[in-house]
Amino acid sequence: MYATALIRRAPLQAPANMHEQYQPSEIEAAAQAHWNARNAFVVTEESDKDPYYCLSMFPYPSGKLHMGHVRNYTIGDVIARYQRMQGKNVMQPMGWDAFGMPAENAAMKNKVAPAKWTYENIAYMKAQLKSLGLAIDWSRELTTCKPDYYRWEQWLFTRLFEKGVIYRKNGTVNWDPIDQTVLANEQVIDGRGWRSGALIEKREIPMYYFRITDYAEELLSSLDDLPGWPEQVKTMQRNWIGKSRGMEVRFPYDTASIGHEGVLNVFTTRPDTLMGATYVAVAAEHPLATQAAQNDADLQAFIDECKRGGVAEADIATQEKKGMPTSLKVQHPLTGELLPVWVANYVLMHYGDGAVMAVPAHDERDYAFAIKYDLPIKPVVRTSAGDETPEPWQAAYGEHGQLINSGEFDGLDFDGAFDTIEVALRKKELGQSRTQFRLRDWGISRQRYWGCPIPIVHCDSCGDVPVPEDQLPVVLPEDVVPDGAGSPLAKMPEFYECSCPKCGAPAKRETDTMDTFVESSWYAARYTSPNYDKGMVDPAAANHWLPADQYIGGIEHAILHLLYARFFHKLMRDEGLVSNDEPFKNLLTQGMVVAETYYRIAENGGKDWFNPADVEVERDAKAKVIGAKLKSDGLPVEIGGVEKMSKSKNNGVDPQAMIDAYGADTCRLFMMFASPPDMSLEWSDAGVEGASRFLRRVWRLAQAHVSAGPVGALDLSSLTDAQKDVRRTIHLAIRQASSDIGQHHKFNTAIAQVMTVMNALEKLPQTETQDRALLQEGLESVSLLLAPIAPHICHALWHALGKSGDVIDAAWPKVDEKALQQDSLTLVIQVNGKLRGQIEVPASATREQVETEARANENVLRFTDGLTIRKVIVVPGKLVNIVAN
Ligand code: ANZ
Ligand code: ZN
C-alpha cells in the first residue's frame, strides 16, 4: 500500500516547504490526512511492543461536543501519544454511549425517531472529534444502540438470569398517574411529574435486579488493589458500598396491644445505646404500620402521604422528619419495658429491617423526632466533657463514650458494650451481631423505549423464560417516535407477541429495557475485540489489553458508573471471559471547565444570562477587569462570578468556535497549559490568544532557521559557555517535562519548560555553525516535547527540520546528563541581606573558595568599607550573605 511510501519520506525536506506564516488549518488537515492514509493509530495485539490501553469515557451523543469532552479527550490523547513515544503499542478507542432518555425527549420535541436523532448526532460529533486530531483507532468504534453490541449484553443477561445473579422482584418506582408512566428520579420535580405536573405516587412493579450485593465485599476490598486511583474516588465508593458492623436486635411484641406473638427486628450500629431506646419507629410500608392503620384513618392517610413523593434517597434524607404514633407496643429485649411503636417517614423500608430502635439522646434523626413529638430522651453515653445529661439539650451526642444509666453495662466503652450486650441478647435469643451493606441490588428495568430490550419472554405455564442464544438479539425497532405516555414497546403487539421458547405456547415478550449504565459497564472490554462475533469479547484480546492502563473521565462518574463497571468486570471474570479482577488500573478524574458569568436583572426580577462570547470585558492598564459590556448594544452587564459551564448560566463556550478560529493545536495547548488535569480549568479569551501566540513564535523561529539552509553537526567539545547554558536549558527541560508528564500528568508545567527553552533559543545568534546546530537540537527537542500536546504543528516541524519518519514514531527525547553539568555557577551576593551583585565560581569550588571570592568582590569591599565582617553565610549553588557592622 502507498501508506508505506508516506512513512519513508525523504530525510531532508526542501525548506521552501515551510510557509512563512503559521497556518493551522492547512497543516492540521495535512497531518490528519497523513495519519489517516497510513492508519497510524490502528493497533493489533501482534506487536513486540508492550501494550498500553488508554481509555477516555465515551460520550453520550447529545448533539455536539462541549468543553468538558474536549478537555477529557485531549488529556487522554496527550497520554496516549506520550506513551507511544515511550515505545508502547498504544490502543486508544472511541465509541458512543448511545441509548438514553435525552434521545426520547428530543424525539418527542422534534417528532423524529430517537435512532435517527442519535445517528445524526454521532456523525456530527465524530467529525468534531476528528478535527481535534486525536490518535484514535477508529476501526474499534462502537455504538451501544446497535444490535451487534447489545446482543452480547442480552446474552450475558440470559446467562446471569439462569445462574440467579439476575432475578425478578417487585421494586418501587415513581408513577405519574396522569401520563400513566414511570418516571426517572430526575423527572420528579418537587414531588410532581415534569410534564404533567401530577403528584407522583410510589408504585410497586416487577423489575429485574443484578445481585451486586453478592459482590459487595469484593468490590470494597479490591479498592485496596488500586493504588492508581484517586483516594477521593475510592472513599466515595467505600461510602456508597457502606459496610457497617452492627447488631440485629429483636423486640418481642406486646401481645396485649398487637394481638399476637412475634418480634420486631431492627438493625443498629449502636447496640451500646440499647438501654437508651425510648421508642421504636417503622417505615410506612412495614407490616406493623399496615396493621396499625387498619382501624386508624389518620394513620392510613399519613402512610399514603409517605408513599407519595420521590424515591430518591437524597430526598428522604433532607425532608422534614414526620411521624404518627400507633397503639402498638413492643418489649425492650433486656428490660422488658414497653416501648411505643411509631410510624416515621425517615425510616426506609429497604434498608436494614425497615425499623429502628430510636435513641434520641444519641441519634440526630431520633433526637429531632423526639423533640417534635415530645418523646423521652434518655442519655446512656457520657460525653467527652464528662457530662451525664448535657443541659439544655441542643443536639444528640453521637460520639462513642463510656456507658451510663445502663445498669450492669455502666462504665463499659463502645467495644466492651458491643460484646457484652451481644452476649446478653444471645442468651435470650433476641439478637446477634451482623455486618450489613448500604449497597442495594441494582434494579436495571426501565419502562422506556430507547434502551436495550430485556431478553425475557413471559409464558403462562413456564414463567420468565430467557431468550435462547440462537434467537438473540432481541432487536429494538428503530423507527418509533415515542409520545411520552408510557413505553411505546408496550403498545406494539408486533414487538411483544411471541411464542414461548420452551413450550411454544403464545407468550409475551418483556417490554422493559435496561438501565443505560449496563452498556457503559462493559464497553471497555468490547473495545478490545469490537467486531468479534463468537462472543461478548475475544478472551485473548481482552486479556491482552485489560485492565486499561489509564482511564480518564469526569468525577461525576466516581460512584455509579465506576462501581457498575468494576462489578461487570467481575461478572465477566466469573463467566471466564476475562482473567483479571479490575478493569481500570489507573484513573484520572479531570476537573470541571468553568467560565465567567454575565447577567442583567430582568423586569420580573430574575436574571438574564449572557454568553461570554457575546460580552466584551473592559480592563484597566494593569489588565484588571473593571467591567463588561454586551457586544450587541454596548451597554454594561453585571459580572456574576466564575461557575461551571452550564446551560442555566449560559456560560458555555462552544469549543468548535475556538477550533475554527485558532486550530486544534491552539485549543489543545490552551487546555493543557491553563491548569493541571485534575483541577478546574477557567476558559479565557486571553489564554487562548496566548496559546496561539506561542505556537506562532515556535513556527516563526523554526521557519527562519530552516530557510537559512542545512545545518552541520554540533561539536560538543567546543561549546562556548553561553552555548553550554542553552544546551543545559534544553536538557533540564527534557528532564523536567519527562517527569511532569510521565509521572504526574502535569502537562502545564511541562509546557512551561518548553517555553523556557523557546526563550533561550530565541536569544541564540543564528549565524555561526555551532549556534545553528544548537538551535537545530533545541527545535527538535521542542517538537518532541510538544508532540503529544500540539501534534499537528509538531508533525510539520519535524519534517521541516529534516527528520526522517513521523514525529509520532519518534522516541521521547533523552536527557544528556553531560549537558546538565555546570562548569561554573553564578551566586548572588548580599551584604546584610541586601542584593549587592553576583559572582561566578567554578562548580567544584569549596566553601572556603567561595567565601574568599565573595570577600574579594569589589561591591562587597565597597559596602563593607569601615565595617567589620562578623559572619559569612554560604547557601551552596545560590547565594553568599555577608553580615557586617
Ligand atoms: C440505634 C442508634 C443509636 C443508631 C444511635 C444510630 C445512632 P448505617 O451506619 O448507615 O448502617 N437505621 C437502621 N435501619 C434503618 C432504616 N431502615 N431506615 C432509617 N434508619 C435506619 O446506619 C445504621 C443506623 O441507621 C442504625 O443504628 C439505625 O439507627 C438506623 F445513637 O440504631 B441506629
Ligand atoms: Zn412456556
TrEMBL record:
Name of the protein described by the UniProt record: Leucine--tRNA ligase
- What is the native source organism of this protein? Pseudomonas matsuisoli
List the catalytic activities from the record. tRNA(Leu) + L-leucine + ATP = L-leucyl-tRNA(Leu) + AMP + diphosphate
Listed PROSITE patterns? AA_TRNA_LIGASE_I
Domain (Leucyl-tRNA synthetase editing) spans 238-422
> What are the annotated GO cellular component locations?
cytosol
Indicate the family of this protein: Belongs to the class-I aminoacyl-tRNA synthetase family.
Q: Which Pfam families match?
A: Anticodon_1, tRNA-synt_1, tRNA-synt_1_2, tRNA-synt_1g
Domain spans labelled Aminoacyl-tRNA synthetase class Ia: 439-596, 643-677
InterPro entries linked: aa-tRNA-synth_I_CS (IPR001412), aa-tRNA-synth_Ia (IPR002300), Leu-tRNA-ligase (IPR002302), Leu_tRNA-synth_edit (IPR025709), M/V/L/I-tRNA-synth_anticd-bd (IPR013155), Methionyl/Leucyl_tRNA_Synth (IPR015413), Rossmann-like_a/b/a_fold (IPR014729), tRNAsynth_Ia_anticodon-bd (IPR009080)
Q: Where is this motif: 'KMSKS' region?
A: 644-648
